[in-house]
């Protein structure tokens, strides 16, 4: 999941870095905003395609013999 969360965290940190606020508040904003962004991105993108499964560290989806691959499980 690091491929997905690092750019998001860096983007939010870049936007928050020069604000005049306590460090704890900045950290809380970065964590909360990253969580709200990364979880939906991961849930919508990672288990769907072979490339995104590989990039997020998941094993390839099991395919039944002679059939279509099963739909992703929630």
Topology diagram in text:
Blueprint: H1 2-16, H2 23-45, H3 50-55
Helix pairs in contact: 1-2
Model description:
The protein has helices at residues 2-16, 23-45, 50-55. It has 74 residues and is an all-alpha fold. α1 packs antiparallel against α2 (23-45). The longest helix has 23 residues, at 23-45. The two termini are 17 Å apart. The chain contains 3 helices and no strands.
Q: Give the tally of β-strands.
A: 0
Helix content: 55-70%
Distance between the termini: 17 Å
Structural class: mainly alpha
The helix/strand order is HHH
The average pLDDT score comes to: 81
Reported for the largest beta sheet, the result is:
none
Strand content: under 5%
Number of helices: 3
Give the C-alpha Rg.
17 Å
Stretches with pLDDT under 50, minimum 5 residues: none
- What is the 3D shape? rod-shaped
Features:
74 residues; mainly alpha; 59% helix; 0% strand
Summarize the structure.
This protein is 59% helix and 0% strand. It has 74 residues and is mainly α. Helix 1 (2-16) runs antiparallel to helix 2.
């Amino acid at each position: 999941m690091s491929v997905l969360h690092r750019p998001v965290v860096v983007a939010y940190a870049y936007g928050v870095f020069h604000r005049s606020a306590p460090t704890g508040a900045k950290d809380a904003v970065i964590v909360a905003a990253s969580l709200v962004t990364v979880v939906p991105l991961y849930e919508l993108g990672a288990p769907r395609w072979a490339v995104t499964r590989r990039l997020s560290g998941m094993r390839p989806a099991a395919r039944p013999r002679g059939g279509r691959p099963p739909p992703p499980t929630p």
